[in-house]
Write a structure and sequence with these properties.
The chain folds into 2 domains: 155 residues, Rossmann fold (3-Layer(aba) Sandwich); 48 residues, no CATH class. Helix content is 49%, strand content 14%. The chain is globular, with a radius of gyration of 18 Å. It has 251 residues and is of the alpha/beta class. The protein has a 6-stranded parallel sheet with strand order 4-3-8-7-5-6, sandwiched between helices. It has a two-stranded antiparallel ribbon with strand order 1-2. Bound molecules: uridine-5'-diphosphate. Uridine-5'-diphosphate binds next to helix 9. This is N-acetylglucosaminyldiphosphoundecaprenol N-acetyl-beta-D-mannosaminyltransferase. Keywords: Cell wall biogenesis/degradation, Glycosyltransferase, Teichoic acid biosynthesis, Transferase. Belongs to the glycosyltransferase 26 family. TagA/TarA subfamily. Catalyzes the conversion of GlcNAc-PP-undecaprenol into ManNAc-GlcNAc-PP-undecaprenol, the first committed lipid intermediate in the de novo synthesis of teichoic acid. It comes from Fusibacter paucivorans.
Length: 251
Amino acid sequence: MNHIRGKTTVKILGVKFDKLDFDDAYQRFTTFMMQDETKMIFTPNSELVMMAQDDDAFRQILNEGDLTVPDGIGIILASRIHHLELTERIPGIDLMAKMLAYANRSNKSIFLFGAKPGVAEKAAQKIAEQYGNIKIVGVQDGYYDERDELRILDKINEVKPDILFVALGAPKQEKWIYKYRKLLNVKVAMGVGGSIDVWAGTAKRAPRIFQKMGLEWFYRLIKEPTRIGRMMILPKFLIKVIFTKAQASDE
Ligand code: UDP
């Protein structure tokens, strides 16, 4: 499987990932901040890759991401099975934290779009407490009438945030970013899933020990047993990855 050496991206079940470690991913983000057109950052996990199997448009959108990094142990396991050399998990929420620190240091502005009414405001408050210099130029909840999309676009563009965090859940957030990427007056738009809830304190992350061991999913399962349906996707994903490998080595 040495043919992937030297490549800057790899594909897992048809979904592109950039072959970068956390620091390189962050560096790539900082280069986006020097450019003019809107760059898209996506952080798929195995659940999203499975979603993308049956949704061609979603898969193509993920593949057009300017930075697409593996958020979750499932993708890293798949990478190991195929010797694809994705070295580490890059959780969207951790990358977001680095981006917030960057914005705080370099006087850049952010906009939080998504989550239930009131949640983005609460997240903004918590972020402002932690990053005293950050410019939070707007918030918008993610439960809006489809007919209001252009109004939301205008609301964002009016305040010209440098970074737009979009938390509408997948694949809605990635599709929204893709649809409006050419009209958005932002440097970076990133799909962040439940991260605004975590910042607001309405959802909690697993303790660090679980994160380090790649067992964040297990913690969430204990806390929210109803997630079992969603979690069963991980073994299905791995079986599909293994099967795909067997097919590839037959060629
Ligand atoms: N969400 C939203 N609008 C919607 C659907 C979801 O703003 O139409 C928000 C939801 O409130 C949550 C976030 O999207 O804050 C992520 O949802 P989910 O937990 O499904 O995503 P995950 O992080 O598990 O991918």
